[in-house]
# Entry
Amino acid sequence: MDKKKKFIYIISTIYISLFTILVFYMVYFTAVKQKQISVHPQNTRLNNLEQEVIRGDIYDTNMKVLATTVNDTRKYPKGSLYAHVIGYSQRGKTGVEALANTELLYPDYNIPSLFRNAFLNEKFQGRDVVLTLDDRYQSAIAKAMKGKKGGVIVIEPATGKIRAMYGSPGFDPNNINQDWETLTKDTKNSPLVNRVTHGLYPPGSTFKIITALAYMTQDKAGGMDLTYDCQGKITGADYTIQCYNKTAHGVVGLKEAFYKSCNAYFIKLSEKISSKDLRNAAEQAGFNDTLPFDMSYAKSKFQLTEADSNFERAATYIGQGKTLVSPLHMAMIISAIANDGVMMKPYVLDYSMNKKGYVKVKYLPQYQKAAMSEVSAKRLQDMMIDVVQQGTGAKIKNKSLIIGGKTGTAQNETDKDHSWFAGFAKQKEDDKNQIAFAVIVENGGKGAEALAVTQKILDVYKNME
Ligand SMILES: [Zn+2]
# Structure
């Protein structure tokens, strides 16, 4: 009998305890519910949440700390290295700080944190965010770009993961408040502008990719190949345009003209491709359109109508017209080529997690569109490989990598020309881990400086895995 009483006593105690906890929890939960509602992204009270939540940390793909919060102060341990892509949160929000704001301020609710918030007035902990960026690329690029202006981006074509995004000059986000006046007044260098996403440059000869594409698109039966005897220049009704260094390239077809970057040949193609067809190819690749990208960026422009002068038209076929492109968009086009025509949406947020390491939101690769046919993409891959094997990009040729690309010189009327290189690299055929990149060095002259920066990207890539 005693045993039975004891049993009932224990059971009752357990029940009463559980009931007490439950009541406590429910009362408490109701009290903080208001705070929870304000987490909704559309809620303008999100900023008030900063009073309640410690902003989460930001990491690169190898868990290197890129942003953290110490005693309510936002710290960026890498200084200016990630200035544009991570942005800042102390003076409005830009970059990842803006993009991932909801996650970074998403309170980690659990019973202990609810109680600590209620009785000790402690803040909740926000979620950490892990990026697709890889510090090995970012650091190598920054070193190569030291003292130079321009933009560099590395993307994984198969997924759209952005591995590096670096604009120069930058700024130190740790001192954004103190430096604000100076930074905004510096219109000569515009350090606050992310040149990768907002720098619009003439594409120069990198645009021959689009002209070649327009030609291939027309060539449905295949085998069409204009040949032309280049004498180092080409003359139209109101212009004479030269090949680089007035070099006479001799008899060239599409393949040779591409790796030698023969201006005369690509202008000659304007007899085969109408302005409208060129425009269609450009727009299919994303010109004059919004890009599938979640951060802010400037739209690339292609302008050419039948009303334009012959000179304007000729210049446009070799990327020297009114066409403007951002390094971001250029890298997306190259990615699509390397990925057999399929353009993936570029992205920088990989996943968010709480302090215990539990993944909360995982961001997945997203198919965007076919930017060109598979046949054209594969033909362009081969043509770009020739550029590095025996053409204008031969300086970065490497025995252990398959590298393709296109050099470009964007004419700059007021100063030295800008130097472009846009391409891809893979360890072997059908390499799912291949990379694509776009590099522009302002006033970098004829290609050489962009190739030097590209070499640093390739050195990192070569030593991976
Ligand atoms: Zn030529």
